[in-house]
Amino acid sequence: MAFHYESVKDILVCPKCKGDLVYDENILVCVNPERRWCYPIVDDIPRLLIDEAEQLSSEAWGAIMKRHGRDPVTGQRSTESLE
Ligand SMILES: [Zn+2]
Q1: Most buried of 14, 43, 47, 75 (most Cβ within 10 A)?
Q2: Distance of CA 1 from the midpoint of ligand 1 (Å)
Q3: What's the gap in Å between 53 CA and the centre of ligand 1?
Q4: pTM of the predicted model, to two decimals?
């Protein structure tokens, strides 16, 4: 069965900080701007394991947040940061 992010996005959280995750192609990215953890998806299975986490650079992380409608600095949804 293929991995369907839309059906699980509300229950998946970052195993390190319990924050939201953003799905970007074949990775899941933690929205915590100080951690920027990225988890691989292998054979349609997200590997949400602390040992598998890799830390993205601020630039790479910001670009992914921006692509998914989030603030490239805070990782918050743009609608939330407008308040
Ligand atoms: Zn996290």
Answers
A1: 75
A2: 26
A3: 9
A4: 0.86
